[in-house]
Amino acid sequence: MNLKERFIFNFIESDRWRYLWDGLGATLKVTFFALIVGVIIGVVVAIIRSTHDKNVKDMKGISKGILMILNAICKLYLTVIRGTPVVVQLMIMYYVVLVSSTNKILVATIAFGMNSGAYVAEIFRSGIMSIDQGQFEAGRSLGFNFVQTMQYIIIPQAFKNVLPALANEFIVLLKETSVSGYVALHDLTKGGDIIRSRTYDAFMPLIGVAIIYLVMVMFFTYLVGILERRLRNSER
User: Fold this and answer.
1) Is the confidence at residue 13, as pLDDT, over 80?
2) Is the separation of the CB atoms in 141 and 64 below 8 Å?
3) Cα Dmax for the chain
C-alpha cells in the first residue's frame, strides 16, 4: 500500500481516528487538571520552604518548631518525587494508593499533579527568593503581617516573574502524560497503540501521534512566547 492507502486504512476505515480524538481529550484533561493540582501543591511548598529560609533564624518557640517540621516534610516530598520516575509514581498511585478507584483520569491527575508540584515548588520558590528583602520590609511598614505581605506584595510579583517557567512546565507535563497507558488510560499515545493493534501497522499511528504532540507543543510554545513578550513590554 502507498501512503495514502495506509492513511485511509489506519485512520479512516472503521473511524479509527476516533481513538486518537478520544485519547487527545483524555490527555488534555489530565494535563490541565494536573497542572492545577501541581500549582496548588507547588505554591504551598514554595511558601513553606522560602519562609523557612528567610525567617527561621529569627523565629522562636513553637512556631519555629512547626515551621522546621513542615520544611522537613516538604524537603522529603521534593526528594522522593524528583528522585523517582513519573511512570513509577503513576503505577504506585494506580496499583497501591488508589487501587479501589475506577476513575483512571482522576488517578493520573493526582499522580502527575504531585509530580508537577515538586517542580513548580522549586520554580515558585526561586521567584519568591528573587524578590528583594526591601519588599518584605515595605509590607511590614504598611502594617501588614507576614501572611498579608506574602498575599498582597510578594506572591503577585513572584508569580509574574515565574509565569513563563510555569508555562513551560505545562508543556513538559503535556508530554509526560504520554505514559498514562501504563495504567490502561486511553490517552493520545494509547489511542495510537490501539490503532496499531488493529491494523498491525506501527508507522502511521505512531507518526500520527507524534505529529499531534508536535503541533500541540508548537502551539503552546507560541503562546508562551507571546506571554513572555507581553511581560517584557509591561516592565518597560
Assistant:
1) yes
2) no
3) 77
